[in-house]
Design goal:
Layout (H helix, E strand, L loop, with lengths): L1 E5 L4 E6 L2 E4 H12 L5 H8 L4 H6 L1 H18 L11 E3 L5 E2 L8 E4 L4 H9 L4 H11 L5 E4 L10 E3 L7 E2 L2 E7 L3 E2 L10 E9 L1 E2 L19 E9 L9 E6 L2 E7 L7 H8 L4 E2 L4 E3 L7 H4 L20 E6 L3 E8 L7
Parallel strand pairs: 6-18, 8-20
Antiparallel strand pairs: 1-2, 1-5, 1-14, 2-3, 3-4, 6-7, 9-13, 10-12, 10-18, 11-17, 12-14, 15-16, 15-19, 19-20
Length: 339
């Protein structure tokens, strides 16, 4: 099942083929048609809520209600709700928002694909850079946080940040948490995974420091594209999901979560130590090789001999997975010092 957020009211929808169904309205119609209750709208608000985090918190019950409502609509060719409101929309006629609530967090794994880190190390002549990359790979999980309030969605333009001349892409798979948990054992983490979505971890590569200000290179308006929806209840193996990045149609990255250094379970255990994870939180698993930064040769001073792999205004970046879907964004604005 594909759980999306759509329209100006940011309601939960279920994507079916080329349509998106207002699932709260559909469930209210189902309850009214199949039970004696006089409070079908109230029942729907409780059991199959219209806002994302409430829907996620209802867990299996909300998913079962959604399936029942979809079957009822399909069997009876129903397209309108209790008050005649539209329930079924063509997917290409509505705006899909990033499937994350503003209260939720985006935890992003750092240095979590060996091939990505090895490629970066192979392409640098700086001993200090090699030592830094080795340190990042060694030891336990490492992460940073993206600001969920300024995420971007499939189809949004990404404004080229004025503070950079080196803008990069990172194709990633993320898990969405389905229930609250603290001090979660890795062996138990699977039960906390609600579903899966895609992330483009847009990154600034000018003078990157892995010190206290590292997050400055990872956070700007639109710097995490999330979507296009959350794939739920499809029996996916979190450690066997493919992911790919294309720039202007050219494949730049092609990887699989099986190559993660630290699994989603290990990340969940690490992130939940003494800290509560909440329904709707995202954990993004890191990126495979093929980014601009790991594909470009650095000189002994840390600069790039050729920066043509980095993004330019007008570039179209697509992140995709056969198991999940795809998100596409166009870079706009001006690359200040180059093309």
């Amino acid at each position: 099942m594909k759980i999306a957020i759509f329209g100006p009211s940011r309601r939960v929808g279920v994507v079916v083929d080329n349509d998106v169904v207002d699932i709260n309205g559909a469930y209210a119609k189902y309850v009214a048609d199949t039970t004696d209750t006089a409070r079908s709208t109230a029942a729907a608000a409780l059991e199959v809520p219209a806002d994302l985090n409430s829907f996620i918190e209802q867990g299996a019950g909300a998913l079962a209600g959604a399936k029942a409502a979809l079957a009822h609509l399909s069997a009876n060719s129903i397209t309108t709700g209790l008050d005649g409101e539209r329930l079924v929309f063509a997917l290409d006629s509505v705006r899909l928002h990033a499937p994350i609530d503003g209260k939720s967090r985006v935890f992003a794994a750092l240095a979590n694909f060996a091939d990505h880190m090895q490629a970066a190390a192979d392409n640098t002549a700086s001993g200090s850079d090699k030592a830094t990359l080795s340190r990042l790979v060694s030891g336990g999980p490492k992460y940073f946080i993206k600001d969920p309030r300024v995420v971007s969605a499939d189809g949004d333009d990404l404004q080229f940040p004025r503070r950079t001349d080196l803008l990069d892409y990172e194709a990633e798979v993320a898990v969405v948490l389905g229930k609250r948990g603290k001090d979660i054992a890795a062996d138990d983490f699977g039960s906390y995974i609600y579903g899966y979505t895609l992330v483009n971890d847009w990154s600034i590569r000018d003078n990157v420091s892995f010190g206290p200000d590292f997050q400055y290179s990872k956070n700007f308006d639109g710097s995490a594209t999330v979507g296009p929806w959350i794939v739920v209840d499809e029996g996916l193996d979190p450690q066997d999901i493919d992911v790919e990045a294309r720039v202007n149609g050219e494949v730049r990255q092609s990887g699989n979560t099986k190559s993660m250094i630290h699994s989603f379970a290990a990340l969940g255990e690490y992130l939940s130590r003494d800290s509560t994870l909440f329904p709707g939180d995202l954990i993004s698993g890191g990126t495979p090789k093929g980014t601009a930064v790991d594909s470009s040769i650095r000189d002994s001073e840390g600069g790039f001999e050729d920066d043509s792999a980095f993004l330019n205004p007008g570039d179209v970046v697509e992140i995709s997975s056969r198991a999940i879907g795809s998100v596409t964004n166009t870079v706009t604005g001006t690359r200040t010092g180059k093309k």
